[in-house]
Design a protein that fits this description.
Blueprint lengths: L2 E6 L2 E6 L2 E6 H8 L2 E10 L5 E10 L9 E4 L3 E3 L1 E8 L3 E8 L5 E7 L3 E7 L7 E6 L10
Antiparallel strand pairs: 1-2, 2-3, 4-8, 4-10, 5-6, 5-7, 5-9, 9-12, 10-11
C-alpha cells in the first residue's frame, strides 16, 4: 500500500491506498511529529565569558516532536550553546545559573539565526531565564 502527503494551505491531504484523507496541519504535525530547530545560548558577565554552575533546558529527543524532556548540565564554561529540537506548540526554555555571584545571559534562536527570546540575570548569582512557546503552525513563526 502506498502513502503520500501534500500540504494545501492549512490542510494536509493524505493519499493512502487511493483514498484521500484531509487533516488540519496543526493536528497532523502534533500526531505524526513536527519540531523546530532551536539553539540555546548562554553567556557570562559583561565579557560573555565565565562559568555556569549548571544550565537547564527543554527539548524534544527527536525531530518528531515527541514528549518534551528537560536536561541539566553540570558546571560549564561560558559561552555555551546547544542545538536541539522543540516540538511545535511546545515550550522552549533555558536557564543559565551563573557560578558564585556572577551574572549570565541567555538567548533562544530559531534555526540558529533569529533571536526569539533573550534575557539576563536580574541580580548577581541569579539565573538568566529565556522562554518562548514555539509556533503551533509548522513552518510559520509569528513575527
Amino acid at each position: 500500500m502506498s502513502c503520500s502527503a501534500v500540504a494545501i494551505g492549512g490542510l494536509v491531504v493524505l493519499l493512502v491506498g487511493g483514498v484521500a484523507v484531509v487533516a488540519n496541519s496543526n493536528w497532523f504535525a502534533k500526531k505524526i511529529g513536527g519540531s523546530w530547530d532551536i539553539t540555546y545560548e548562554g553567556t557570562g558577565g559583561r565579557a560573555g565569558t565565565g562559568q555556569a554552575s549548571d544550565v537547564r533546558y527543554a527539548y524534544s529527543p527527536d525531530r518528531t516532536g515527541s514528549k518534551p524532556r528537560e536536561e541539566t548540565t553540570g558546571p560549564v564554561g561560558l559561552p555555551w550553546s546547544r542545538a536541539v529540537f522543540v516540538g511545535v506548540g511546545d515550550r522552549a526554555r533555558v536557564e543559565v545559573h551563573p557560578a558564585g555571584n556572577g551574572t549570565a545571559g541567555c538567548r533562544i534562536l530559531l534555526d540558529g539565526v533569529r533571536v526569539v527570546a533573550e534575557g539576563t540575570s536580574p541580580a548577581p548569582g541569579k539565573p538568566a531565564v529565556c522562554e518562548v512557546t514555539t509556533s503551533s503552525t509548522p513552518g510559520k513563526w509569528p513575527h
